[in-house]
């Protein structure tokens, strides 16, 4: 056990799906997995292990932001033998090519966080997805009749920006969308020799000002779940 996960040894599968919201983890476990067990519930950050199409798989919430996912991802990779973490989350669109419910595969993650300073790198680390997972996810999406968007996202430490137009500078660099976790996930995976991928559903758009409800984000973002599960 760790300070943040009370699961027993070998409680997790080699692959963990990781939504930010623990209730989304519960939704995935109850609606997609068989023979499911709750394996951790510290601070109500639920983690489950079950089977999908006969294969063992786990799902666990990460919480919001780089500090939160960095704790759970590190502990899963380092103490529980997890090899692959697939983040399934929501994002805000920066690109006018994105609409609500579109799927984004985060090929890379930019950030305004100081997270990389933890590694004392003499430069700027480019956080990228594992190519095998990215390619499989892209092909899975196509097989499901989904046209995913592949590219860069911003992992932001700030939700409420003082400069309301700051996002336009990221848009000018062809950053597709903003979320709050992927940079840390990709960096930790690289450092530990593990694999990671982020699959996102557009929940709102800074371009059009459209947005989904909290309930819709929790229960209806099913396309990305199916892409991830079929990896």
Automatic annotation (TrEMBL):
A matching Pfam family: PNP_UDP_1
Residue ranges of domain Nucleoside phosphorylase in the record: 15-226
Binding-site list for phosphate: 20, 24, 43, 87-90
Keyword Transferase among record annotations: yes
Catalytic activity entry: a purine D-ribonucleoside + phosphate = a purine nucleobase + alpha-D-ribose 1-phosphate; uridine + phosphate = alpha-D-ribose 1-phosphate + uracil; a purine 2'-deoxy-D-ribonucleoside + phosphate = a purine nucleobase + 2-deoxy-alpha-D-ribose 1-phosphate
The keyword Protease belongs to this UniProt entry's keyword annotation: no
Keywords: Glycosyltransferase, Transferase
Swiss-Prot/TrEMBL GO biological process terms: purine nucleoside metabolic process; uridine catabolic process
GO cellular component terms listed in the entry, alphabetical order: cytosol
Known function: Catalyzes the reversible phosphorolytic breakdown of the N-glycosidic bond in the beta-(deoxy)ribonucleoside molecules, with the formation of the corresponding free purine bases and pentose-1-phosphate.
Similarity field: Belongs to the PNP/UDP phosphorylase family.
Subunit comment: Homohexamer; trimer of homodimers.
Entry protein name: Purine nucleoside phosphorylase DeoD-type
Organism encoding this protein: Peptoniphilus asaccharolyticus DSM 20463
């Amino acid at each position: 056990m760790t300070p943040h996960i009370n699961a027993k040894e070998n409680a997790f599968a080699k692959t963990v799906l990781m939504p930010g919201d623990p209730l989304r983890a519960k939704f995935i476990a109850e609606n997609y997995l068989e023979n499911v067990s709750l394996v951790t519930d510290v601070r109500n950050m639920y983690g489950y292990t079950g089977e999908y199409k006969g294969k063992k798989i786990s799902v666990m919430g990460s919480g919001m932001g780089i500090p939160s996912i960095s704790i759970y991802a590190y502990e899963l990779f380092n103490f529980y033998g997890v090899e692959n973490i697939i983040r399934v989350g929501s994002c805000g669109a920066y690109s006018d090519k994105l609409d609500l419910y579109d799927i984004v595969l985060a090929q890379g993650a930019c950030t305004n966080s100081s997270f990389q300073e933890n590694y004392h790198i003499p430069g700027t680390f480019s956080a990228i997805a594992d190519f095998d997972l990215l390619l499989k996810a892209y092909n899975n999406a196509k097989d499901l009749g989904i046209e995913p968007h592949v590219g860069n996202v911003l992992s932001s430490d700030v939700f409420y920006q003082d400069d309301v137009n700051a996002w336009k500078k990221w848009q000018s660099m062809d950053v597709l969308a903003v979320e709050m976790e992927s940079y840390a996930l990709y960096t930790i995976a690289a450092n530990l020799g593990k694999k990671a991928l982020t699959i996102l559903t557009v929940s709102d758009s800074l371009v059009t000002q459209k947005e989904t409800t909290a309930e819709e984000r929790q229960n209806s973002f099913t396309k990305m779940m199916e892409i991830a599960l079929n990896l």
